[in-house]
Amino acid sequence: MIIKHIGGILKNPAAHFEAVSLEERSVSGLFLGYILILGAIPPIAGLIGTTQLGWSFGAGATVKLTFASALKISIAYYLAILVATYTLAKLVQWMSRTYGGEQSLERCLALISYTATPMFLVGIVQIYPVMWLNYVVGLPVLAYTVYLLYIGTPIMMRIPREQGFLFSSAILAVGMVALIGLLGSTVMLWSAGIQPEFTY
Questions:
Q1: What range does the domain containing 73 cover?
Q2: Handedness of CA 131, 135, 141, 145 (dihedral sign)
Q3: Domain total of the chain
């Protein structure tokens, strides 16, 4: 099931979204069979990368996180991914009324989770926690994710392409605000005791 969706999203996204729009699905089914699995890739890769490989600045010593510290951060990271995915789907459902395509939460969650598939997958790069590498690999994947959003929104929301463009732009704006909110929440987590502890 997961392989089929990943292949469809990467090979022929328009046809895949058309097929997915006809499927019966549930929120629990999407979470258990897709989001919980793919959403675990970035936190697990980050846990391995920051504790086993580490990173260095120039010719300096390799810096790693302690396992206990990295585990707490990875769990918080995983929960943030799950909450952000669900919250964004709820916001898409709420916004769908404005664009004349009011849809179920299941359909909105499917749009968000399948659109986010490349971002989940590229999380594997975090196994090598070097900032420049993550940017070089991540930026084209982010661009492809935005492309998927613009392709999938009119199909999944059953609205004309012109409205789909506006709706996709609104979703993108909300997604950017959510990302800034997640970054801001890290400051609160650090003050709550979930901060990195380094080993050298």
A1: 2-199
A2: positive
A3: 1
